[in-house]
Amino acid sequence: MLNAIDKVILEEIADLHEVPLGAYNIRKNGEGISRNTTANIDIITKKDKPGIDVIIKPGTKGESVHIPVIVSQEGLKDIVYNTFEVGEGSDVVIVAGCGIHNSSGESEQHDGVHEFFVRKGAHMKYVEKHYGEGDGTGERILNPKTVIEVEENGLVELEMIQIKGVDKTVRDTDVILHENARLIVTERLFTNSDQSAESNINVKLVGEDSSAQVISRSVARDDSKQIFHMNLIGHSKCRGHIQCDSIIMDNAQVSSVPEIDALDSDAQLIHEAAIGKIASEQLTKLMTLGLTEIEAEDIILQDFLE
Amino acid sequence: MLNAIDKVILEEIADLHEVPLGAYNIRKNGEGISRNTTANIDIITKKDKPGIDVIIKPGTKGESVHIPVIVSQEGLKDIVYNTFEVGEGSDVVIVAGCGIHNSSGESEQHDGVHEFFVRKGAHMKYVEKHYGEGDGTGERILNPKTVIEVEENGLVELEMIQIKGVDKTVRDTDVILHENARLIVTERLFTNSDQSAESNINVKLVGEDSSAQVISRSVARDDSKQIFHMNLIGHSKCRGHIQCDSIIMDNAQVSSVPEIDALDSDAQLIHEAAIGKIASEQLTKLMTLGLTEIEAEDIILQDFLE
Question: ipTM value of the model?
Answer without folding.
Answer: 0.89
